[in-house]
Amino acid sequence: MQQSPRAGREGDVLAVVSQSGPTVSFFDAASDRHLGAVQVPAEPHELCFDPTQRLLWCTTAYHSGYYHANSGRRTELTAIDPDTRRVVEIIDLAPEHGPHGLALDTARRRLYVSVEGSADRPGGVVVIDTESRRPLGRIDLGAPGPHWFAIDPEGRTGYATNKEAPFVSAVDLERGTLTKIEVPGSEGLAVSADGTHVFVASPYAGFSAGAAEKRPATGIRVIDTRTASVVDTLATENIVMPVHLTSTGKLLVGEVRMEPDPASELGRHTPGRLGVYSAGTRERLGELEVGHFPLTITSSPDGRLAYVSCVVSSTVDIVDLETLRSLARLDIAKAGEAGAHGLAYIPRPV
């Protein structure tokens, strides 16, 4: 008999950002029971769990709103103890602002935080010592608005997607040298387990009136890291925001779906779609309907379960990746929160 996808997850926890909370909520990974929430500075966006320090990192990007439609950029990075569910420290990155993307190098004890640019400096990535929780330096990324950030398995190269800029920034994390890889604007990304390819959601998901008509073909640009060039495109029907790679080599992409609405120039959100591919063969394995506007995807360490947070419906879909079946939907708004965004899977303490 096949083991239940929830078996053996007792004590594991799923952390979920509520942008409008502003909170990080915690759920039992075996039962989906709501365990509590931690208040954080407005407006939280992404999460990253550090198993070495056993800390949960949370970026706070804006006072309210979102990229290109906000009331001002914030400067805080919050360190949370996920076991006691309390804030350990709030690190002020000023004068850096708009922190968003997070990538962790446990071997070197470094956390990389993407930050937006200003009039006199391009956007970049701030390097944090995870032991002292203090900045070690900053690396320029050559674009005004780097958003998502990922590193290769060896921790040598970082990749930043740039919404409007027509390139992905590839940066040597020791020397700071920058290579620009041409793509027509970009959103989420993921680096393959062997570091040879980067999967990038492209183009930029502008939702202004008429944006869809001007938009290049939507999909996942596959970048060969050895040649720093796009070698393939996995076409999608809709614009893609989040991209995630599981430990078992499945590529997960979140498609945002909209339909015309006479009452709004932007249109009306309809249920999003989780697309599942083989990262090795690039074959599309299947798809599943999820909540409105998927914005973040993560997975369990064994690669069996996917978690898809959807900001407009404020839900998190839990998906069995072996059967491509929906197991549950967490209603973040029901817990008194709204705007589900960042996710982190936290294994129980050993």
Automatic annotation (TrEMBL):
<dbReference type="InterPro" id="IPR015943">
    <property type="entry name" value="WD40/YVTN_repeat-like_dom_sf"/>
</dbReference>
<dbReference type="InterPro" id="IPR011045">
    <property type="entry name" value="N2O_reductase_N"/>
</dbReference>
<dbReference type="InterPro" id="IPR051200">
    <property type="entry name" value="Host-pathogen_enzymatic-act"/>
</dbReference>
<protein>
    <submittedName>
        <fullName>YncE family protein</fullName>
    </submittedName>
</protein>
